Amino acid sequence: MFLNSLSEPNLKKFSDWVQSLFGYGVNINRKSNHISINLKYENDDVNVIDTGYGVSQILPVLGQVWWAKNRPVRNLYFTKKTTIVAVEQPELHLHPAHQALLADAFVSGVKSEGKSEDIDVSYIIETHSEALINRLGELIYEGCFNENDVQILIFDQDDIDKNKTIVKESYFDSKGILQNWPFGFFTPEVRL
């Protein structure tokens, strides 16, 4: 319903943004009392129902990422509007290539690029996606954003007291390489 609530100009802006990231736009078809969401390709429209499950699951996330930076802002007392968007496992049901593109979407949502400077957006993303995390490193390496703009926290079971959770911090260096990353997090440990 969020997409249906957008004005035509905002729906076009959202569609163009999704197109720039994922290679397809978004269109809403309204017939009688029915609303359908179509993905717009160069020569074809495909109903989202006829695509993979992951696409239908990621559209609401993309909508919130886009809206967090593009929503109208009323400046009361000339203060900056801070928004925090929390997303739990946005990579579920997505192809690894699309998981990586989520990093581009999140970085795009943080950067201004002509959007309102009065909106400051931060994301809390809970993920287990190697593709998403590696892409963040690539984007740092490519100079798309600064390594200091990312904080990675790892919640792990305490080695001594299994009922405790400890929080460790990992980070990217200026070349986008993960530092202080726990061994075996993405790949299973090899037991000899």
From TrEMBL:
What residues does the Endonuclease GajA/Old nuclease/RecF-like AAA domain cover? 28-133
- What InterPro entries does the record point to? AAA_GajA/Old/RecF-like, Bact_Antivir_Def_Nuclease
Q: Transmembrane region positions? A: none
**Where does this protein have coiled-coil stretches?**
none
Supply the Pfam families for this chain: AAA_15
**Span of the secretion signal?**
none
PANTHER family hit by this protein: ATP/GTP PHOSPHATASE (PTHR43581), EXCINUCLEASE ATPASE SUBUNIT (PTHR43581:SF2)
Would you tell me the protein name for this molecule? Endonuclease GajA/Old nuclease/RecF-like AAA domain-containing protein
Give the species. Acetobacter tropicalis
